[in-house]
């Protein structure tokens, strides 16, 4: 019963947090451009938007801590599931990731019903090969950074979240003009579903297959590098 209660709590948290996540990026843009009145290419506006994005990531990291594991990104829980036991892997892939996708889809649907002219979500602006390489590199990088932070400073929430947030923002900016710099298949799925593009080859390869492969590669590489060589036994002097 206790395990079932925890699983239901995680599914509910994943759904709600994913729903909120797709809203947060749009609300930040509305706050910066419509309420504060900064232009789309204003330097001051970009600085305010980046600062708000980092605060936003702190807020969602706090939500993850409060819910004891709730997440809005399939990559995050996939990285944990790959290194965990088989039952945890099945639960993450078969239940938690779908909950995140459904939360994102409903979040985008409500957004489009509430606001007009908010865009179409992430767009692939290069060919499928360059797009896949871009999302793969970005995902591999952020997963590697996250694993390193968990191993080195797991007891410092503020420092871990600060480094993670700045890293995510930097990687997002690096890939924003090419693929949107997403590193979040569920969020992209919400927008793609709303636009009827969720079963296209570009979407499945660039925003799902490549990030999943990159995540598993990062976890595998990190595990290999983390393995310590056994100490050689000292020769006996007696």
TrEMBL record:
GO terms for molecular function: channel activity. Signal peptide: none annotated. InterPro entries: Aquaporin-like, MIP, SIP2-1-like. One of its GO terms (cellular component) is membrane. It comes from the Eukaryota. The chain crosses the membrane at residues 12-32, 205-227. It is found in: Membrane. It is a multi-pass membrane protein. Its main location: membrane. Keywords: Membrane, Transmembrane, Transmembrane helix, Transport. Pfam families: MIP (PF00230). Belongs to the MIP/aquaporin (TC 1.A.8) family. This is Aquaporin SIP2-1.
């Amino acid at each position: 019963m206790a395990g079932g209660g925890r699983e239901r709590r995680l599914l509910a948290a994943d759904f709600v947090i994913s729903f909120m996540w797709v809203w947060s990026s749009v609300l930040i843009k509305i706050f910066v451009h419509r309420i504060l009145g900064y232009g789309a290419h204003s330097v001051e506006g970009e600085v305010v938007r980046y600062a708000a994005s980092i605060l936003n990531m702190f807020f969602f990291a706090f939500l993850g801590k409060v819910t004891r594991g709730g997440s809005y990104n399939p990559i995050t829980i996939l990285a944990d599931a790959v290194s965990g036991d088989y039952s945890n892997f099945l639960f993450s892939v078969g239940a938690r990731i779908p909950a995140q996708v459904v939360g994102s889809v409903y979040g985008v649907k409500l957004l489009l019903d509430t606001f007009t002219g908010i865009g179409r979500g992430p767009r692939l602006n290069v060919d499928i090969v360059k797009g896949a390489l871009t999302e793969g590199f970005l995902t591999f990088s952020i997963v590697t950074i996250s694993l390193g932070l968990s191993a080195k400073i797991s007891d410092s929430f503020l420092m871990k979240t600060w480094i993670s947030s700045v890293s995510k923002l930097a990687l997002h900016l690096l890939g924003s003009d090419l693929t949107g710099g997403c590193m979040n298949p569920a969020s992209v799925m919400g927008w793609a579903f709303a636009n009827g593009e969720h079963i296209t080859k570009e979407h499945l390869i660039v925003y799902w297959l490549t990030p999943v492969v990159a995540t598993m590669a990062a976890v595998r590489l990190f595990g290999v590098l983390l393995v310590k060589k056994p100490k050689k036994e000292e020769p006996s002097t007696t």
